[in-house]
């Protein structure tokens, strides 16, 4: 090789190195990250949330993440490609903790067993359909067909929470049933993943198969019982102790001042410890998070289950959810944008979707999601007691049932149909764990590149179509929540037009247009839009008002 060629090659390498260094300069990385976050916000919250309205923001976040991510135009700095998904997973952890805080003990006790059963059926049906399609239609080996089927078993808690929470459905009995289903589904997905790992290992041992199953069941049942029955007592006693300490400290400070009046001293004392008590409640939740996340992970269960149990432990503490949302609410919102725009979007191999064979096979495998939607009819029993209704003088509607004499509502009426769609479309969303199972099958050689791309394409369809269909259902079928009358007893529950199998004695539904987030949870409420002649808003105007 001549000296000129050597010199030219060296200059080319040097120029390439200089360009790479410039691209990775701290300011360039910082500014690209700012533009990436801005693009996520514009695509999701402005274009989808404000302009289109019918499309949930998370679809815009995923689309922009694919466009700017490593499988798209590669706009995101390479040094941050691994960092953004970690931040997104942090958002999922914090949001599951938030979901645990939003749980209502009485309603969860009523819908918990049904949720566990629906989660089990909702995992088996799509897995079975995916296995049969892969084995008989695509003619894959049974190991590969099993890996494909298992990819359609999980339910994305992040997708359901992102749609239900802004609509105010999360605090209803139906919303808490869906959360219970999603949590149990994630546990089942982790157990399935651990079994796939054990079966693909060089040496198959009984402990590798049994430990994840036993650990998940113990954390689910024993951990849930401790969170609901033991931790409220512990936290209540701890709160009383902390309150007494703060009161004494505040009283000692005020006693040193001039004795103007007894009222001013009491007022000053109360203001002195109210804010610290809010901070201490948040501290309790954070401590539980740091304790339960590694405990569940290293015991071969799901760390996401630990996040949910941390919130569930404090769900019966007054003002705990308000303290958490006040301090971390906006942070969780931004981290969830990153979760969909990075954790989900960066793992999608869009360059493989250009093959028509991949597209067709992916659409075929997407039929497995029918197993999720079919779980919806399991929501309500065949006969559900229908309360009697009467118009009150103040314009509200009172609904009562007499002991032993109740009229039955057919399970195939409009209200039941609506709730079945809500549950089915909530369960059809698959994202994080489904991608994880499919990726494991590909890395272990169970799936070739074409089948892996087809499976991911089917999962992507569910990730996009599920929230869109769920949002349309909530809007078109007019699932609008209404506040309870103040005369309702505290031990009653309300699910605001959403059917539930929770027994009910008296229900009062106000016709006012108030904030749905202030409602008590768990009362069965008659669907006022269909039971009485009221002025309804057009469905297209009810989209996320």
Automatic annotation (TrEMBL):
Its Gene Ontology cellular component terms are:
membrane
What are the Basic and acidic residues biased-composition ranges?
252-262
The membrane-spanning stretches of this chain are: 27-44, 51-69, 75-96, 117-138, 144-164, 176-196, 208-235, 282-299, 334-353, 451-470
Q: Where is the composition biased (Polar residues)?
A: 496-513
Cation/H+ exchanger transmembrane domain residues? 44-241, 281-469
Topology within the bilayer? Multi-pass membrane protein
What are its GO biological-process terms?
proton transmembrane transport; sodium ion transport
The principal localisation class reads membrane
GO-annotated molecular function? antiporter activity
Please give the InterPro entries that the UniProt record associates with this protein. Answer: Cation/H_exchanger_TM (IPR006153), Na+/solute_symporter_sf (IPR038770)
| Disordered, as annotated region | 252-272, 486-520
Subcellular location as annotated: Membrane
Kindly state which keywords UniProt assigns to this record, in alphabetical order.
Antiport, Ion transport, Membrane, Sodium, Sodium transport, Transmembrane, Transmembrane helix, Transport
The answer to keyword Transmembrane applying to this record is yes
Q: Do the record's keywords include Ion transport?
A: yes
One Pfam family, short name please?
A: Na_H_Exchanger
Q: What's this protein's name? A: Na(+)/H
Q: Which organism is it from?
A: Seminavis robusta
């Amino acid at each position: 090789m001549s000296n000129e060629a050597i010199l030219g090659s060296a200059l080319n390498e040097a120029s390439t190195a200089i360009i790479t260094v410039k691209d990775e300069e701290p300011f360039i990385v910082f500014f690209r990250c700012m533009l990436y976050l801005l693009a996520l916000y514009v695509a999701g919250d402005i274009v989808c949330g404000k302009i289109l309205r019918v499309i949930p923001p998370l679809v815009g976040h995923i689309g922009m993440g694919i466009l700017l991510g490593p499988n798209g135009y590669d706009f995101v700095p390479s040094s941050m490609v691994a960092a953004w998904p970690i931040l997104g997973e942090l958002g999922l952890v914090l949001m599951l903790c938030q979901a645990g805080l939003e749980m209502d003990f009485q309603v969860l006790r009523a819908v918990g067993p049904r949720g566990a059963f629906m989660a089990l059926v909702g995992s088996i049906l799509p897995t079975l359909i995916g296995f049969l399609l892969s084995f008989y239609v695509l003619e894959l080996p049974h190991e590969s067909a099993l890996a494909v089927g298992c990819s359609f078993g999980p339910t994305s808690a992040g997708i359901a929470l992102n749609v239900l929470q802004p609509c105010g459905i999360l605090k209803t009995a139906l919303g808490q049933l869906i959360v219970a289903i999603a949590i149990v589904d994630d546990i089942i997905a982790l157990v399935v993943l651990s079994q796939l790992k054990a079966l693909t290992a060089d040496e198959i041992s009984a402990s590798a198969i049994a430990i994840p199953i036993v650990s998940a069941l113990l954390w689910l049942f024993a951990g849930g019982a401790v969170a609901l029955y033991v931790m409220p007592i512990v936290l209540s006693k701890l709160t009383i102790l902390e309150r007494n300490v703060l009161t004494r400290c505040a009283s000692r400070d005020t006693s040193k001042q001039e004795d103007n009046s007894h009222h001013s001293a009491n007022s000053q004392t109360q203001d002195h410890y109210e804010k610290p008590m809010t901070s201490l409640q948040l501290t309790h939740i954070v401590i539980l998070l740091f304790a339960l996340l590694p405990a569940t992970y290293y015991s071969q269960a799901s760390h996401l289950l630990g996040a949910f149990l941390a919130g569930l432990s404090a769900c019966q503490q007054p003002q705990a959810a308000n303290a958490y949302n006040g301090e971390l609410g906006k942070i969780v919102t931004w981290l969830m944008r990153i979760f969909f725009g990075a954790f989900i979007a960066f793992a999608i191999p869009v360059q493989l979707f250009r093959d028509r064979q991949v597209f067709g096979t992916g659409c075929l495998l997407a039929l497995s999601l029918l197993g999720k939607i079919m779980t919806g009819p399991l929501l309500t029993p065949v006969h559900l007691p229908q309360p009697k209704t009467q118009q009150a003088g103040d314009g509200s509607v009172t609904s009562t049932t007499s002991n032993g004499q109740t009229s039955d509502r057919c399970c195939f009426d409009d209200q039941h149909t609506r709730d079945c769609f809500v549950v089915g479309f909530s369960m059809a969303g698959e994202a994080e764990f489904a991608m994880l199972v499919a990726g494991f099958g590909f890395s272990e050689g169970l799936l070739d590149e074409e089948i892996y791309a087809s499976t991911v394409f089917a999962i992507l369809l569910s990730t996009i179509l599920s929230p869109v269909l769920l949002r349309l259902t909530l809007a078109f079928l007019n699932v609008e929540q209404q506040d309870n009358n103040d005369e309702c007893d505290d031990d009653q529950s309300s699910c605001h037009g959403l059917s539930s199998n929770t027994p009910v004695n008296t229900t009062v539904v106000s016709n006012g247009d108030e904030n749905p987030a202030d409602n008590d949870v768990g009362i069965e409420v008659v669907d006022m839009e269909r039971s009485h002649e009221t002025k309804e808003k057009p469905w297209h105007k009810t989209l996320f008002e």
